[in-house]
Amino acid sequence: MASINMIEAFQDFKDAENIDRPTLMRVVEDVFKTLLRKKFGSDDNFDVIVNAEKGDLEIVRRRMIVHDGEVLDPNAEVAYSEAVKLEPDFEVGEELYEEIDLYDFGRRAILAAKQTLASRISDLKKNVLAKKYNDRIGEIISAEVYQVWKKEILLLDEENNELILPKSEQIPQDYFKKGESIRAVVKKVDLKNNSPVIILSRTAPEFLAKLLEIEVPEIFDGLITIKKIVRDPGERAKVAVESYDDRIDPVGACVGMKGSRIHGIVRELKNENIDVINYTNNTQLLIQRSLTPAKITTMELNNESKHASVYLKPDQVSLAIGRRGVNIKLACELTGYDIDVYRDNEGEVEDFDIDLQEFSDEIEAWVIEELKRVGCDTARSVLDLSVEELERRTDLERETIEEVRRVLQAEFESE
């Protein structure tokens, strides 16, 4: 038999659709030329012909016909008496083209070639996969959940390549089931046992940046630039944006009419509060904006030590600090300054309090509005009143009030 069907004989060849055909043909040719060198000592007079479409392989041997007794190199020359056995019309000086039956190499050699080819193609597929995702670092991709483990989730992309979303790269409120499609950003490509491991992330600032780019055409077009993003995943994020076109309001463009653009991102990030602020080179103004939604009264800056003392009215302090201190922590990261918050005119650090709005993920909005209606804007202002007093002053049921107090009290105990 002078040829062999590669698809049937070498299964990996068939499965390597993501490798371009010219590269595959070079690999197959190289493997069989190695086989020829082992058997004949040289591959100079052999042509390995690969038909990538059909999966056929053919090896042709070229030798010059010489007079009997004048054969000096058996690989390059053949005696006239041997040549005419194949074709009576041959003459001295002509070239003899002869197909080599692969099974002449022996079963062991064929098996070795098959293993070598499978190994080479496997390496090629790894290299192609690594290069593909190295080029896509920082991009958002969609993938399907294949397996959920305690420390990570295994996902499959559209080509059934395996991707990893570690627990540390998931938003705390994330919960995924097998078969579900999720979006994440490609964070990095690691090598484990010489195999590429693609790591995804939903907590990286780049994930929020790309979501904004998708939702806000002005960012995609370069009219608005994202200067910096800081996040406490699932809790709060601050995005500093700048526009080089005076006609464009960067904050308004990012938020959209009635929050239409930002709402989809907030849902994707499991109700993460997103503060979009105008970037400025004025440090004092940047710190003031970074502490949003709180309103600052006065500020003292020390640019050498990168320290800021901020004074606010008592009812603004809890807003500046935020739930679990998230707001002020992110403001420090965004500005690069250590920020201390004080009550105006007292010069002492405010007792920790939390604005009720910070509990919007645990307490329904209408309940918060009802408490605010009777003057309870912060967690401590609610806890300072008894259940009976709250029941008398609001339209809330006793069970609802007790549940609200339990949620608020748990937050202070955790602190």
UniProtKB/TrEMBL annotation:
Its main location: cytoplasm. GO terms for biological process: DNA-templated transcription termination; transcription antitermination. The keyword Transcription applies. One of its GO terms (cellular component) is cytosol. Residues 233-306, 307-413 form the K Homology domain. Keywords: Cytoplasm, RNA-binding, Transcription, Transcription antitermination, Transcription regulation, Transcription termination. One of its GO terms (molecular function) is RNA binding. It is found in: Cytoplasm. Residues 136-203 form the S1 motif domain. CDD domains: KH-II_NusA_rpt1, KH-II_NusA_rpt2, S1_NusA. NCBIfam families: NusA. Monomer. Binds directly to the core enzyme of the DNA-dependent RNA polymerase and to nascent RNA. Belongs to the NusA family. Participates in both transcription termination and antitermination. This is Transcription termination/antitermination protein NusA. It comes from Cnuella takakiae. The lineage of its organism: Bacteria, Pseudomonadati, Bacteroidota, Chitinophagia, Chitinophagales.
